[in-house]
């Protein structure tokens, strides 16, 4: 209104341009172009992944991939079976840690028997033994014997699922020792995996009271837990030292050196463990354990001992093969991937309790594996570039 209040109303109209068919077409074209560019980007990435995979596959002969597949399969099947048999030994009446450790390395002739046809047909010749090589064989054999004894104590006091979850920390130790000894690359994704898997082990420790087996005291459970972690650390150290021996002493000449290394190291471990078993008077104890062994007595006891020896040797042979063909990284990852397999099998066969904390630790552990694989893949891509 004006100042006199007489009254003229001024109307101001705001015109909004209505969308025209041309505008609609333009907007549709922009949206389709955006969707098209996203689809093209995804296709390009998929094509790059496929091309990289084919390039990697073609860079190695078929025999390489066959041996890598068999070695990886041995790790993912034989190691879980060996872990379950270790727990079965204690569940059905076994008590001696030395006997179980001895059974693990009693299968040392297995890789030696695989070598005989290669030597007989003239396709391979024995690697000359030097003082340095003998020293490494003896050292790795001693560490393997100590590692087996620690795991024997762990499986005596922990459920199989818990023991395998704690043993997943071997991936973290493999990464750290691989970086310090074998000079493997360790980036942020790998460090993240180390932290995450360590957190999973801590979660299992916090839930330690919920799955303690009957007859096991809290002190025994804690001892088993600590020895499981120490055994995992020693396992990672053995992986790194084995890669160092292959790279600097044996060389990556042929797969038969894997069999030689495994036969020699297992023989040394067998000698150390047999000496400890003799001092502990474990050989007479075998007969007493076999007589009172559940579900079959001596026959069942012999079955457990034999298959423990076979599965452990196949698992270690597979791990050594992966080390020879690839690196500590892949061996550590596959060694850790067996954790969920062992945990699930233990829940099914032994009815191990699976609490919420343990499930959370399992999920975190799998996440750590994935992070480690992503980190290793990015390192390989950068080095290739």
Textual characterization of the structure:
Its main location: membrane. InterPro entries: EmrE-like, PUP_plant. The chain crosses the membrane at residues 62-79, 99-121, 128-146, 152-178, 190-209, 229-251, 263-280, 300-326, 333-351, 357-375. This is Probable purine permease. It is a multi-pass membrane protein. The protein has 385 residues and is mainly α. The chain has one domain (66-383). It is 78% helix and 0% strand. It has 14 helices and no strands. It has helices at 21-58, 62-91, 97-105, 109-120, 131-157, 160-167, 170-180, 188-206, 218-250, 256-279, 282-291, 297-325, 328-350, 356-384. Helix 3 packs across helix 5, helix 7 runs parallel beside helix 9 (218-250) and helix 12 runs antiparallel to helix 13. The radius of gyration is 29 Å and the shape is globular. The termini are far apart.
Whole-number total of structural domains? 1
Class by alpha and beta content: mainly alpha
The arrangement of helices and strands along the chain is: HHHHHHHHHHHHHH
Unreliable segments (pLDDT under 50, ≥5 consecutive)?
1-16
Number of H/I helices:
14
Shape: globular
**Radius of gyration, in angstroms, nearest whole number:** 29 Å
> What is the percentage of strand-forming residues?
under 5%
Helix content: over 70%
Q: How would a crystallographer describe the biggest sheet?
A: none
Look at the structure and give the mean pLDDT: 79
Distance between the termini: 76 Å
Number of E-state strands: 0
